[in-house]
Structures are given as structure tokens and as C-alpha cells.
Amino acid sequence: MKQVIFNQTGMPNEVLILEEAPIPQPKPHEVRIKVTARNINPSDIMFVRGMYGITPKLPSSAGFEAAGVVDLADEKNTIPVGTRVIFTSIGTWKEYVCVPAHLVIPTPEGMSDEVACQAFINPLTAYGMLETSGLIRGDWVLITAGASAYGKLVIQMAKQKGINIACTVRRDEQKAYLTSLGADLVVNTEKEKLQKIIMEKTGEGVNVVFDAVGGTLGARALSCLKNNGKMMVFGLLSLENIPLNSGLLIFKNIKVEGFWLTSYLESLKQEERETAFRTVFTHLISQKVKVDIQSTFPLEKFKEALEEYEKGGRNGKVILVS
């Protein structure tokens, strides 16, 4: 089988290589999946660079999220051969992956592989952050990197809950699209003063910030919180930590907390997990919440896919298919 691996951490276009490898044999509790689609996420890039919360065991494949079809069942036949599935695993940029059967989710009828392969991480993160944020109808949320895949998803989900949405972008041409998805206020932080505009629009500031960027933008977003507000940090696209203003934390009683999907899902009871998956999948199948696809590339053209991923102004996910 073909697989994309790295033997040392570094920039993906420098350390990732394509090689032939034996098709893996599953353990009794595992299913073997022929992978059909994988999307490229920021976490994939950080993992290859050695900057993610999970340290790669070298050599390692890249990618965490994918869709495929079971080609060898587990010993209990929990997931039969031929079942289309969604799954997460460390190293999905391969033609075949073995995954514990209880971690595999059957792909809902009517959902394409290109949508299924991005139906887990970003949609469930958006759902989980909204559920744990304490936001209610009429509140304001500020989303940094509003034009990201996550940003577009959480805008659509928050709008359904009657939450007022502000978000940041770096290009004026992104404003109209995010407004069409439901954003009430879109600020180009390359040209406009974020805190000034937020305060003019909201009066007191926002109730919650969802921050994917960190760095100086994260600090500016923090200053947009109202008294007793909360910032939820779940990404570091800038690769820079947030310089926290201690005075804001003290005198406005602001809280800053992290969010990681793995920890969130582990904290849920089985019934709550099922509700989360059912809600997200229903949104995607009904297209009440839409995901965008920029382009698809065969696995062996991963370098071209990475080049596409790095392009500015990209409006959808780059998918590796096989």
C-alpha cells in the first residue's frame, strides 16, 4: 500500500515522503479500513512539525481524520465488511488503517466521503464549545479566524441558537460570505481596530471569545470581553502564545480556559456522546450546516495538496483521496 510518512519532525513539504508498505493486519478487536478521503487540518501540520499536544512516534504517518470503508471486520463482526465509516487515528495518510471497532462511526446514508472525512473534528469542536460556553440566545461571541473551516461551522451553529456573532478576518472579500452564513459583525483586523468596533456594536463587549489564533490577535480579542467574560482557547494558528493582560483578568474578572475535543468527548457520558454525534451529523446531512471543499488530490500528490492548503484566501478544505 501507499503511505505518507515522516522520519523526523519539520516542515511537511520537507520531511513527508511517499513509500510502499505492507498492508497492515488488524488485531482481533480492530477493523481494517480502506481509506477513501482525508482532509488536511492545522493539527496535521503542527503534528508533523512536532508542535502538537501529541508527540509523534517516529516514523509516523500524518493526519488524524478520515473516511473509508471496512475491508476486514473485527472478530465480533461489530462493523461488517463493506460498511462506510468515519474515524480518527494517528496517521491517516495511508491506503489502509487499522482502528479499534468501538471507535469507528458508520457514515450516515447520503453523506459523501469528502464531507464525512471532515465531519468529526471541526463540527464536534464547534458543537462542544457552544455547549460548554454558557452562551444563551442574545449573547455575543467573538470568533477569531472566522473564515476557517471551524469558524464557518460555529457561525452556522451559533446562529441557530440565536447567539450574536462577531468574527475576525484578514481579507475584505471574506466579509460578505461570513455575513451570509449568519455573522452579525465581521472585522478585518488588518485594517480595522477590533476592540473599538466590538465596543461600538455591543456596548459592553462580548460574553465569550473562541480563539484559534493566539498571539497578539488573541490578546486583542481578550480585550473585547465584557466583565465576567470568558475566552476559550482551542488553537494556535499564529504559533505564538497569547500575551495576557493581567489587569483585564483581575479587574474585569475574565477567565481563560482551554478546549480540546479529545478531553471534551472523554468527559461525556455515552448518551451525551451519541447526542453530540447525532446532532452534528443531522446538521451536515440536512445541510443546515455546510462544509466547503476547495479541491481534492490523490494521496500520491500530497505535495501539491500541501501547496494548495498553504494558499491564501482558500475557502474550503483540501482533501486527499484514494
TrEMBL record:
InterPro entries: ADH-like_C, ADH-like_N, ER, GroES-like_sf, NAD(P)-bd_dom_sf. One of its GO terms (molecular function) is NADPH binding. Transmembrane segments: none annotated. Residues 10-320 form the Enoyl reductase (ER) domain. CDD domains: ETR_like. It comes from the Bacteria. Keywords: NADP, Oxidoreductase. This is NADPH:quinone reductase. It comes from Aquiflexum balticum DSM 16537.
